[in-house]
Amino acid sequence: MGCDQNRRCAALSSALSQSLETLAFVEIMPLGEDAPPEAELIELHPRNEVFWASIPLVRPASGGLTVVLSRELAAMLTDQIYGFLEEEPTESMLLDAVAELANVISGQFMNNFLEGSSSFELGVPFKGTSSKDSNVDPGGTAIERLDYAVEGHKLTVLLVGDGLEA
Amino acid sequence: MKVLVVDDSATMRRIIVNNLQTAGYEDIVQAGNGLEALSNMAGVELILTDWNMPVMDGLSLVKEIRKNPAFGNVPIVMVTTEGAQEEVIEALKQGVNDYIVKPFSKQTLIEKVEKVING
Ligand SMILES: [Mg+2]
Q: What pTM does this model have?
């Protein structure tokens, strides 16, 4: 997506596509300036019930990575990740799947950003639901925000932290 | 072959179990952290473990298993987000047989599993 020369943005963007493609077998499209016309339509749909998960970044940077998506997208990704869900997924299953997705994206982001040259430590996920996007607190001012279209729904990733200079 | 899958995420356990089952591994037990894993070791012939878990992490689990002769030389594969060289070296030094970085494909998982079983 439109990361230009921003190494941090590129590391995050590729972590996101790698994780979603490998875990949930879905492709993602950037929203915003570089969005293909079909993706741009998605942004118009408001998300009135969102699921979110935050992974603390402990070392060598401190901060957090937060994934925000609608209940519908959480359910769709959970179904994809689990393979064959016979039962209707419970809220705790959806949250666990979103948290693990955030965990894998965070790890992949740190591996990409640090280029495997130094080790890192992630914390245990926080997760929850919220009535709207703007109520989700990523734990500070986002230094990176990426919005993507995934199978017709919006997925947002927010990055907060120190020691992550692009 | 009895396989023990250890991860604090129920989702990741389900992904690993699904992959193993489609490759023909039917006898699978699960644990949510290292301590739980230690009490589910009976008859286990292969372990896949996460690194970052509450209560007892994967590296501590590996150390416990390797210092207890009762568990023998059961092969262990670490399945984790941490991909840095020094982490991999540390895990291998503590007795891990192979290492997989998340996210992984089914093919990668099964290849590594077969490599440690046969090898
Ligand atoms: Mg974990």
A: 0.91
